[in-house]
Amino acid sequence: MPSPLSSSAPARPHAPFAFPVAARYAGMESSPLKDIFALAARPDVVSFAGGIPDPSLFALADIAECYDHVLRLHGSRALQYGQSEGELELREQAARRLSRDLPTSAEQIRITSGSQEGLFVAAEALLETGDVVLVESPTYLAAVQAFAVHGARMVGVQTDEHGVLPDALDRAIRTHRPKLVYLIPTFQNPTGRTMPQERREQVAEVLLRHDVPLIEDDPYGELSFDGSRHRPIAALPGMSERTLLMKSMSKLMSPGVRIGWIRAEGPILQTLAVAKAAISMQSSVVDQLTVARYLEAKDLDAHVASVTGIYRERRDALAGALAPILPAGAHITDPEGGMFLWASLGEAYDAQAMLADAVAAGVAYLPGWSFFAENPDRSSMRLSFVTHSPEVIRAAAGRLGEVIAQHG
Amino acid sequence: MPSPLSSSAPARPHAPFAFPVAARYAGMESSPLKDIFALAARPDVVSFAGGIPDPSLFALADIAECYDHVLRLHGSRALQYGQSEGELELREQAARRLSRDLPTSAEQIRITSGSQEGLFVAAEALLETGDVVLVESPTYLAAVQAFAVHGARMVGVQTDEHGVLPDALDRAIRTHRPKLVYLIPTFQNPTGRTMPQERREQVAEVLLRHDVPLIEDDPYGELSFDGSRHRPIAALPGMSERTLLMKSMSKLMSPGVRIGWIRAEGPILQTLAVAKAAISMQSSVVDQLTVARYLEAKDLDAHVASVTGIYRERRDALAGALAPILPAGAHITDPEGGMFLWASLGEAYDAQAMLADAVAAGVAYLPGWSFFAENPDRSSMRLSFVTHSPEVIRAAAGRLGEVIAQHG
Q1: Could you tell me the domains of chain A?
Q2: Measured between CA atoms, how close is A219 to chain B, in angstroms?
Q3: Which UniProt keywords apply (chains A, B) (predicted)?
Q4: Does B87 contact A at CB distance below 8 Å?
Q5: For the segment B134-174, what is each residue's pLDDT rounded down to a tens digit?
Q6: Which ipTM did the prediction report?
Q7: How far apart, in whole angstroms, are the C-alpha atoms of residue A177 and residue B73?
């Protein structure tokens, strides 16, 4: 007689329950970018990877004073439910700032929890599975993700040093019949490039001719190093009604506060509010009223001028340190504002493959391939110059130069 | 020769540009509920419509102290980018509270901007167009919207005074093969009903047998009037791994701060973080650290005990005032916690049609039809008892009684 032990069937191992995952997120449990940011966060690494403001430049005392003001004078309201459209004071302040470039009323503003939520709200409101979105090549990858999880297909449009090429845009519209075009005209992420006024007019002409709407993302436009202002494409004749213009306080005041807004006109404003309500009901009322108070009572322009003065020095430090260490034939951009510089090393280089050695040498960047909807330039890298002092930037760039030399 | 004026074609009127709207939001530019809330917000109306906490009960001084603490001691971090998963201190506090009922680690927590975003994140992660979601009949309508915009079809399951009927749930699962089941077991919205322990066990048995995941929404569970605690269904054997348990600080501390969390286990935690990042990058770091500080340094239990004592008096006032004015054959629920009471007047009544007269008499409620996925009880209404004092409640209920009598 077999023993009870041998006769009993082996205990079926407990199969853990697995949640079904929607196709839009299948295979996205981890990402190479997340791993890069984890590496870049090591204390022994100087990171050019993220677009992370230097926290020592935050207007902390002013912001704390505004939180205190709101909680002391409007506490019960700040802690209560608010409006999906956003709190009126903040919409008024947003409209006032936007009106420098484009007449805007508070009714044309929808508040979002940072411009990432703004992009997601816009995608919710507009996109169907299978829609094509035309993007700059390269473009901002988190926007691509917000569109992609709505089933959109991204098609990259060729760019030069002045941004998207009007002829290429025209051809792509005729070929792909896109639902919308997504552009970052000023101090673009990842390249740092800016579209001159003439190019903006050419692009607007193409969009108007084909009646295609635009999402114009402008989180960096006020970070100008020479004080010049670049009016949004939305401000060109005929464009305001067909553009969702996205703004953010993350790069001007604080990313941790998570406040941005969308400017729009017409019935789409209602849809944006309904989508926002479905996604997150409303943005933090405490944060909204605090940002409104900050814009009303403090001098954001003076703060931005002080910060961009420091950013300009850091851009100079990074550009200056990179010039002698880049291989012959490499290209780097010359950003007049914003946070990013873009380097393309040339065909012999693979920026992703080189990253492990760079991190071992104590310096990190973001490989550029991830910013392309298609046909990535694998030799490219995005380097943020805003986080570190010129001394730290120069030392780290020197170490990066040695790694590049080894890979040449 | 015709004059130049008559020969020229009439100027084509400028056709305003119309943004394309995704099918998921088509026709949702306005909603009857939004109109109701606008009416209910009139200063001459006592509103039972919204689940709006009485702002005089907010722990304003404590919360302001926590904002001040965070900005003074951790200001640079609070204003900086954070983690999509949520800040560690807050996840630890959330885990500590949940562990009273269900052992939970900080790694099992995902922070969201209120539980509306939690529901949306879960829908993003799990739902495909055409999926069926089983819901209580009636159920919380904003959850239904978060599911519906992902293309899901809601099927209502019959309930009694103890919540969803296990046999009906079993039949519905076999008939509809749902992707998930959505339940609010404790002090349900809209009915105020609570599932007893035995019913929870029967429901868990059905879900385990069919291997169907559960979204368990628990924003009200701690608002108990007799101090009794209701352990979540997620705490029953086998259920924690197949449940997304949703919690919110909106009803316990402040809805304006917009902080909630999801408890989950296993690989779905990664998908939830990726979805959260696509939707809004991360929740306000200032608000997260402030809520963490509040949970660490203040006595939320004592605050909740004080608030629920007042809510209980208000429930008594509303239930007591309604009893004599409801028609024969009407049913009202007897909630032991939460914010809502549910009245079903009987076939002769249409709560939507009656609302205009009620508002004219200075009292508002939410017609119940909107809480049904199908087969609405049009005579039903949801009444929140938390916003007003007993005196105000009694006076308004008296006026409502006159309106009901006119419609009988």
Answers
A1: 30-58+302-407 (3.90.1150.10), 60-297 (3.40.640.10)
A2: 15
A3: Aminotransferase, Pyridoxal phosphate, Transferase
A4: no
A5: 999 999 999 999 999 999 999 999 999 999 999 999 999 99
A6: 0.95
A7: 53
